[in-house]
Amino acid sequence: MEHFAIWVAAFLTMGIISFLYKDNAWYKLSEAIFVGISAGYWFVTLFWDNIYGKFWVGRGDDAMLYIGAFLGLLMLMRLVPKVGWISRWPLAFIVGATAGFYLINYFSSNVMRQVEDTIMPLLGTDYSATTYDMIGNIVIAVGTFSGLVYFFFSKEHKGVFGGTAKVGIFFLMITFGASFGYTVMSRMSLLIGRLDFLFGDWLGMIK
Amino acid sequence: MNARMKEILVVAVLTVFCAIMYWGKVDGWMTGFQFSFGLSMTVVILIAVSLLVILYLTLRGKLIGRRVVFLYVGISVTLPFFMSLSQEIKISPEVQTLYEGIAELPPGSVVLTAFDYDPPSAPELQPMAESFFRYCFNNDLKVVVIGLWPQGPQQANIAIEKILLDEAIAAKNLQYGIDYVNLGFQTGNEFVIQRMGSDFKSMFPTDYTGTPYNDLPLVRNIKNFSNIDYGFNLSAGYPGTVEWVQVAVDRYGLKMGAGNTAVQAPQCYPYIRSGQLVGILGGMNGAAEFELMTGTVGKGTKFMLSQSFAHMIVIAFIIIGNVAYFRGGRKQKL
Amino acid sequence: MRREIPLLITGIVGVVFVIQYFIPHWPFNRMNAWFSDWFSIVQACAIWLGALNLIKISIQKIAKKKKDWIYSVVILVFFLLITILGFAEGEEFREPGTGFTWLYEFVYTPLSSTMFAILAFFVASASYRAFRARNLEATLLLAAAFFVMLGRVPIGDVISGFMPQGAQLSNLATWIMTFPQTAGQRAIMIGIALGIVSTSLRIILGIERSHLGGGD
């Protein structure tokens, strides 16, 4: 069984890699298996971890949970075209909850806290900032401010405003470049993982 | 021979090669290849020379196809597996601060580890998970695992099973439910974190295998984040570090560090500077640095050579592409 | 009614989530708990809906013998296989040695991992074909990528080892990540957050209704 298992894994890995040559039946077969298995995986996991956990062993006696279950059932009604419109109710619930939740959390964590940290005392809160820190603080303040100016589209980017926006673009370009570098790093890591499986775990060629 | 026959022949040859290698592994005569230092350097020089040839051809106006790029990427990642070259890994400030955050925890501290990733991100995050667990178990920290991704707790189990085989850790005879617990996965993304802020048990009425929350001694007395000493999130996207920072850190005051895929890491840097995160491990490089800090050699360290080579190849092809662009009067399309 | 009730639900739920942040006491703490539980259940059902929809579409494709219908049969077979195993094996379906775990380790893991891994080839190919120093902005982007790619792996310091400490590639990469990158990232972060805040307000107040779709 152990040999069969690793050959199955290798066969499927090679099937996906074969796409690099061209779209082919081996790839399509592997892709279809992936789609079926993924959907089934979520289906089963959500039942045991969520529904079973909550209603059978959890707090099945908590009557309020059944309102959630009712909303969930309404969501599944989407599969029945005649009454599909009723799925708007749970959808409205999801959208409302997300909107209310994000409104506060994004404002607090991604606006207020970031603004607070951007406008730092030049010499540090305890006057201990080194030249490196001071330059860093200035770069952060200028970069964040000019970047935000660039995103302000209600005013034409001309004159001082345009110049500031231009500086903002420079900072954004550096950001995108760094993100690109990290993306390359990430993708290569994933490839390393798969090739390690093929040459190491499967064929035993790596010492 | 037509194209179809050629394809079948290539697949057949590959299959035979793989079968022989596999048979060798099973039979015991294939113990793996390791290039000597001299051979490793020769391979490096050969790759460099071939890239120079491509550059020369580009200057002469002969452009290469994308499959050549594919081939070089494959080579640059694979060959370093067999090379005997060493590189010094430097610790970056964000890894240093993350390590210091964990190092100051006294034995018996409860660490919440959120596994928010799936197998595709495992090459980057699994080495972090393993060295993190190894550090926790070696230093008698109590570990509570949860996941906002369904595959996360399963990845945690794979890491724990591996670490428990470690001689020093096996000698500690760690008990499930007392020294570590896997509470499993729960849907609801950031709402799960928010609910945990008031009551862990409501979101995780049972553990990963169905044992009721109150039957697990480690978590029985954990009500909410105020009973957690440190949070560590391994994240590959949404829901992940951003959500943990917004809710667990900013709202409930949890002290937290994170391990991210390299794609996500740059987005988390503002949180380090503002003190919302103690530190982060970014991608496989972050994993290698953390392994170095915790005194282990795992897959992060092992694969740094492949990572370095792959980056060099991408840079080389960017340079070649730009040469073609400028040589072709800025109109060259590849 | 088909639009009014959903609008009401959205507004009430949104307002409750805003208020409970400032007043985490009864009744808002209870409402927060209920709504969070419901969210979790509804989300599970939404994901089920996706899976069931996939099955529905696959069956339709097979019934109509559309192009590549045979792959829809494969989708159905593997969906049923893992689902039946997962339910039959009970709540310990993920324990080592179960059929579900076998499928996870030897089918799901290699497939999902490789699907993402092959992106490495396309990233490299795209860099070769499209990453050009066309103007000052593009050159800045390229230079940042260059320093980060080299500075974040050990080979960067092998190349720049002869230079003063501050000019070594790993330190340059750290500087880029800590300051200009963080500044740019923060500008994007604040920009997105402000966008989210305004959109959320529009949704809660019922000005933004696109999520309810068309019709009456």
Report a brief summary of the structure.
The complex is a heterotrimer of chains A (207), B (334) and C (216). Chain A has 207 residues and is mainly α.
Description:
The complex is a heterotrimer of chains A (207), B (334) and C (216). Chain A is mainly α. Chain A is 76% helix and 0% strand. The longest helix of chain A is centred in the C-terminal third of the chain and has 44 residues, at 159-202. The model of chain A has no long low-confidence stretch (mean pLDDT 93). Chain B folds into two domains: 38-85 and 303-334, no CATH class; 93-301, Rossmann fold (3-Layer(aba) Sandwich), CATH 3.40.50. Helices cover 53% and strands 10% of the residues of chain B. Chain B contains 15 helices and six strands. A six-stranded parallel sheet of chain B has the order 3-2-1-4-5-6, with helices on both faces. Chain B is globular and about 70 Å long. By secondary structure, chain C is mainly α. Among the domains of chain C are: 67-117, no CATH class; 121-178, no CATH class. In chain C, 75% of the residues lie in helices and 0% in strands. Chain C is built from nine helices and no strands. Classes of the chains: A mainly alpha (207), B alpha/beta (334), C mainly alpha (216). Chains in contact: A-B, A-C, B-C. At the B-C interface, helix 3, helix 6, helix 8, helix 12 and helix 15 of B face helix 2, helix 4, helix 5, helix 6 and helix 7 of C.
The tally of helices of chain B reads 15
Please name the CATH topology of the largest domain in chain B.
Answer: Rossmann fold
Could you tell me the radius of gyration of chain C in angstroms?
26 Å
Order of helices and strands of chain B: HHHHEHEHHEHHHEHEHEHHH
Which CATH C-level class of the largest domain in chain B is it? Alpha Beta
Structural class of chain C: mainly alpha
Main interface by residue count: A-C, 113 and 124 residues
- Helix proportion of residues of chain C, in percent? over 70%
